[in-house]
Design a protein that fits this description.
single chain, alpha+beta, 8 helices
């Protein structure tokens, strides 16, 4: 009887241990994908759409993981679409004024912590109003696309913004030579203007001015922008003066 009792107790303990291990494995197999789904949900709530779920079994949790992955992909596509609508200029495909203001805020933060180093180039298209008034706004819109192509060819790797009707801007780093880039832009534009003369029935130019952030005198983004804008208007007057002399 004693041996039988010991055997029964031992057998019961063994069965209990086996049952515990089996239950633990089963629960763990369910908890791991559920934990992954929980973590993925938190990332999605934070606006991070790079969801990677490893559970791919063909069961209820696997189907849920698959559906969750499809949902995160769709949300990213919608986010990218509306982000582009909000921050992209429909006419030129460049960054718009809202994107410019966002970048300005980032740079203002860098100025406050003494980490800013940047140059602003402000640009304006000469003769756009003449083209709009004489041959129509459709040609004016086409001109904006043509000068945008000139800017893209010049400022490779730097963000371009359309901040007004015919006003544009780029922000370059300290390693780039702004005057070299302005000269390159105006040379490219001059060649393009010759090719387009029959289309627009007149020549066009891009006036541009640059200013670099100086720690000792600049306290805000606008300080630099206003100097670049002033330099652009001086260049605009100079270009118009050269054009008038050439026409005489």
């Amino acid at each position: 009887r004693r041996n039988l009792l010991i055997f029964s107790i031992g057998f019961s303990v063994l069965i209990s241990l086996v049952a515990f291990v089996v239950i633990y494995i089963v629960i763990r197999s369910f908890l791991k994908p559920l934990n992954e789904l929980t973590a993925a949900s938190k990332r999605l709530a934070d606006g991070k759409f790079d969801v990677n779920l490893s559970y791919t079994r063909d069961d209820e949790i696997g189907q849920l993981s698959k559906t969750f992955g499809i949902m995160s992909t769709s949300l990213k596509q919608y986010y990218d679409h509306f982000h582009n609508l909000a921050y992209t200029d429909a006419m030129t495909g460049l960054n718009n004024k809202a994107a410019f203001e966002t970048t300005k805020g980032v740079i203002e933060s860098e100025i406050k912590i003494n980490r800013a180093a940047f140059t602003i180039i402000v640009m304006d298209v000469n003769n756009l109003k003449t083209i709009n008034d004489t041959i129509g706004h459709e040609k004016g819109d086409l001109l904006l696309k043509h000068v945008t192509a000139c800017m893209r060819e010049t400022f490779v790797g730097f963000p371009l913004y359309r901040i007004g009707g015919d006003e544009f801007c780029t922000i370059i780093n300290g390693a780039a030579d702004p005057q070299y880039l302005i000269t390159k832009l105006q040379d490219i534009t001059a060649e393009k203007s010759k090719e387009d003369f029959d289309v627009f029935q007149c020549s066009y130019q891009i006036a541009a001015g640059a200013a670099s952030f100086t720690k000792t005198s600049d306290v805000s983004f606008d300080d630099v922008f206003n100097r670049a804008d002033k330099a652009m208007y001086e260049n605009k007057k100079l270009l118009k003066s050269h054009t008038s002399q050439a026409e005489r």
